Amino acid sequence: MTVPGSGAGSGAEAEERALMALPYEAPSGTVAYGEHPSQVVDLYRPPGASGPAGVRVTLLHGGFWREAYDRRHLAPLAAALAGPGVEVALAEYRRVGGGGGLPATFEDVARVTALPGAPARHVLVGHSAGGHLALWAASAAPGSVTEVVAVAPVADLGRARALGLGGGAVTAFLGPGEHPEADPSRLSPPRMPVTVLHGTADPDVPLSVSGAYVSAMRACGGGVVLRALRG
User: Fold this and answer.
1) CA–CA dist 65, 95 (Å, integer)
2) In what order do the strands lie in the sheet with 194-199?
3) What is the pLDDT of residues 143-171, one digit of tens each?
4) Which stretches are transmembrane (predicted)?
5) Which strand (E) or helix (H) includes residue 137?
6) What is the pTM of this model?
7) Among 22, 52, 137, 229, which one is least packed by beta carbons within 10 Å?
């Protein structure tokens, strides 16, 4: 997610505009998991679906944890993923500028991963800041999640802070100082399959950020898979 002042090129900005321009897809329903307006999950199931789903896919959106970016831009993806036997839960969470940060955002994600009614297979997918939260949940608050896919995640907060990603987004999110309890790269390896997908030319979150996380997990015996995608 391109942020003003992040140094991202016009190509990334054009991709973001195209993503934001996709028509909104309304959910089948929305459930609240708390009293805050951002503590909600949109549910997507294919038209005419009946009976329990065999798979739940929970989506965590990106946007460098900022209030300006919400779940709506992932609604077309959520609708596309919903299919026979597959339900999609598009989660919102408290963000910086709207009551989020440490610990509120993490408390929300822990609630989302533990929502009742999940089938035997529960895949947690997160992008960018949402990828960071998905990897954090894999180690710290898995709930009913059985596998995780993180796309271009802000997976190593120390490296992200040093690089100034998102115009100082890590400091805005967590405040000054180190917070190892919030950093996936400093937690115990997940006990579930984790796949990290990252573009080799990502202008917002460099591939090296995911590489640092994967190296840290493997050094502790974790079996995280990194797939570098060209472009």
Assistant:
1) 5
2) 29-32, 40-44, 86-91, 55-60, 121-127, 147-151, 194-199, 225-229
3) 999 999 999 999 999 999 999 999 999 99
4) none
5) helix 129-140
6) 0.92
7) 52
